[in-house]
Amino acid sequence: MTVAQARALSELLPKHALDLDAASILSAWPRHAPLCLEIGTGNGENLLANARRNPDRNYLAVEVHRPGIGQLLLQVETHGITNVRASTEDILTVLGRLPEGCLQEVAIFFPDPWPKTRHHKRRLLRVPFFELLRPRLARHGRVHIATDIEDYAESLLETLASLPDWENLAGAGHRAPRPTWRCLTRFEARGVAAGRRIHDFVLARREAWPCLD
What we know:
Blueprint lengths: L2 H14 L18 E5 L5 H9 L4 E5 L3 H14 L4 E4 L3 H7 L5 E7 L17 H7 L3 E11 L2 H12 L4 E3 L17 H8 L5 E7 L8
Parallel strand pairs: 1-2, 1-4, 2-3, 4-5
Antiparallel strand pairs: 5-7, 6-7
Helix pairs in contact: 1-3
């Protein structure tokens, strides 16, 4: 952690942090607007670019790697960005406190693959996570996922096949096109340089429509 990142955590995080104990968590932003959550923001390259491009939306960065949040907050301060809030809490804790239907968009780009078989149970993109996320996603919300790990992509497809309340918008067993708004971060660029294929997915809630007599 750099000196500047440490300063950002001590001075800026209290100002821009999401208060999970607040009576109204969504009051953390200065105005009501569609909420976009990015899980595992790294240094915040993608989230910051989109927050600046879409000032009419609110953004929540969740990242347990504190130097990354420190770097993000430095950029928030430098560019005077007002629609970003951050949390260093575990994402399962954060989701458990968010109100239902509040998330218009969720981005999960290159989550930790936990490559060893005995560690696969630590992967985020498993059934319990999707069960926790679904009620927090707005009816027409979208979940965008990207991974450069073939095994993780296949595992995700298997998980989705077991979840009747979720829909893969590219079709069962298929990948989605790369979204134009997703920035090419340094992390992704390293994966591409190493020859790894990038797998994109776009998910939505599958709604149960009432039968009409």
